[in-house]
Design goal:
Layout (H helix, E strand, L loop, with lengths): L7 E6 L2 H18 L12 E6 L11 H7 L7 H16 L6 E9 L10 E3 L6 E2 L4 E3 L2 H19 L3 E2 L2 E9 L2 H6 L7 H17 L1 H14 L11 H12 L8 E2 L4 H4 L4
Amino acid sequence: MSKSSPNIVLMLVEGESDSTLLVPSFQALFDERDATPEMRAPKGWRVWGSEFRCNVATLSMFPQNARNAGLLVNADVRAVVRDRVKSYILDSDIRKRSYAYVVQVIDLDGAFIPDGQVLQGSHDKVEYSDTTIAVRNPECQRKIMHAKRDAIRSLMGLESVEGIPYRLFYVSRNLEHAFLGDAHDFETAQKQINAAKLAVRFSNSPQEFQRILDALYVMHGGDRQLEDDGDSWYRSWKYVMEQPAASLGRGSNLAMLPKFVVPR
């Protein structure tokens, strides 16, 4: 392995709180893993984050969100991801060959529940339970969910971006639900506070972060052995697609991210 081997993991996330929590937490996890020579990148792993600042999986329904976030408008989700990665690399002024992996993390928000579990609600905000979603306009919500499913399936088939290995991961329903077990709909400021507190906690104890990742993976039918032969990652997605309420239930396949990121 040469000294020029890539060592940057670019993590694509939806919002600021996602980046605040996940980037330093995974950095601490990789820093600890760097003590194992065969898993260490020559210059040490570096986790960098890039925020879409919107739900990239539903941009086909909301082109104005793409405009507001400075993303490609009326483009398929793969093109949006490719453009973001290309722009990030150019802006970073770091040579592309330094980038080892691109990973993307999305919230499922119940995307794969049956249409019949989307109910008529009486509030402006979407109301989630462990098995249902209630909204003022159920039919519109179903269309949003279908668009998100299509985007997820497309990104699952994406193997590289700008020649860099790529893989998609999820949390269900969102970070607070996954890492705190809290189903409240937090305001943006509180989400950031929650994320910052968790980031400090996990940065100081990457072992705790790994334990929680493992537990979330098992909650969604994952094998405790965490063998990533490619099929295991695919099965984690198949689980949330086929189990009626899994995309609303607490869980994640982020435990497989460190298995994907290996020296190359």
